[in-house]
Amino acid sequence: MRVLIVDDQQDIRDTLGMVLEYEGYEIATAESAAAALRVLEAEANATPDVCILDVKMPGRDGLDLLAELRDRWPSMAVVMVSGHGDAHMGFEAARRGAFEFMEKPLAEARVLLTVRNAGVRSELQKENTELKRKVSDRFAILGESGPVQKVQAMIDRVAPTHARVLVTGENGTGKELVARNVHERSPRWKQPFVEVNCAAIPSELIESELFGHEKGAFTGAHSMRKGRFEVADGGTLFLDEIGDMSPSAQAKVLRVLETGEVTRVGAEKVQKVDVRVIAATNKELQVEVEEGNFREDLLYRLNVVEIHLPPLHHRKEDVPLLARHFLKSACSRNDIKVRKLHKDCEAWLSGQVYPGNVRQLRNLMERLAILADGDPIPAAEAERLLRSRRAPTGRDPFNECETFEEFKGASERLFLEQKLIENGWNIKRTSERLHMMRSNLYKKIDKYSLK
């Protein structure tokens, strides 16, 4: 751990340095605020974990420097020291972001304990910063094509406002990413981001999910539960697949948008909520309105600003960039040595059609990371693994489904078959990754005659 000691008195710098070096700390010293900044700027890649900063120094004092340190090096914990301290000075140091305030003369035991605790705080801050960076990378919208730049520009303009947003586009184009980016760049970014998949919740439960319920409101309501609107209070509620919401739920959502009030199922008390709603759909909602499946007044409430995501075949120039990013992420996620794509592979990928859009390309890159031979990966491997996902007859298996149950069966069969292929038909590993009991997986293999 590195410690920077900033004090205008040479004997204090020497004494503190000797005590801390004896405990294994790496020490840097500075005799003034200006000298401290020079040290920090010269060691940009090795910022100290802790700074022990004197308050009274010639020129710029420590309290004045403290604000700049917290702003430019937020992970560095600052411990203020003074020979003329009082309660007001300690309060002011804490207000400006100091980790601790100590009065001179300094007791060795307290110095060591404070520096150790400050170091722990610094490590936690660094881990938090790294976690936020990873989350930011996870929800990054990648691409340099015109359509993507247009989407980015729309996000930049609408995010700082409180306007509702309707995100449209085909499945797999990244509608959730847009919602996340709008939230993260808005004044609500510190508040909850709550997601509801309207298509995944049975129609008889959607109202309870959105608005909550009281104990005993219906069979199975064993306790009071807050709805998603209440949970998202102050933040953002993302209503994914809004086009699949039941008519009764549509009417109640419209009322919430008009009044800013929700009433739990089985309750009489009204709850005030402040929620920004972002909705998403892969349907043409105007067509749904004309066919009587969606409320026109709700569409007008939701569609204050529309952001339309282009399908991947409208931004093919982004495919190599996306492919490299997804391949790198897949290698990291699966603890695989980072792999690269051959130039001919990137060119081949750019020429393909992706009905599943960005999601399909991401899944293909994960298969390549795990199963492809060669490094860099050649186009032949990408072609082989993409072809393995298609039906042997070349037909779309879903076009042959007459009922929803048949569609679910076809989807389950293709999903399980691909996961088995990805895991080299290792039943144990496949069941573990799917969080499925092996006996159930064997039954599914037998049911669908997977070979």
Task: Report on this structure.
This protein has 451 residues and is an alpha/beta fold. The chain has 3 domains: 2-136, Rossmann fold (3-Layer(aba) Sandwich); 146-310, Rossmann fold (3-Layer(aba) Sandwich); 337-447, no CATH class. It is built from 19 helices and 14 strands. The chain has helices at residues 10-22, 33-42, 62-72, 87-95, 108-138, 146-158, 175-184, 203-211, 228-231, 247-259, 285-290, 296-302, 319-333, 343-350, 357-371, 379-387, 404-422, 427-434, 438-447, and strands spanning 2-6, 26-30, 50-54, 77-82, 100-103, 165-168, 193-197, 212-213, 225-226, 236-240, 261-262, 271-272, 276-281, 305-308. The chain has a 5-stranded parallel β-sheet with strand order 2-1-3-4-5, with helices on both faces. Helix 13 (319-333) packs across helix 15. It is globular, with a radius of gyration of 29 Å. The model has no long low-confidence stretch (mean pLDDT 88).
Low-pLDDT stretches are none
CATH architecture of the largest domain: 3-Layer(aba) Sandwich
* Distance between the first and last residues' Cα: 56 Å
Would you give the CATH topology of the largest domain? Rossmann fold
Mean model confidence by pLDDT: 88
Features:
19 helices, Rossmann fold, 3 domains, 14 strands, five-stranded parallel β-sheet, alpha/beta, 49% helix, single chain, 451 residues
Summed up, what is this model?
The chain has 451 residues and is α/β, with parallel strands linked by helices.
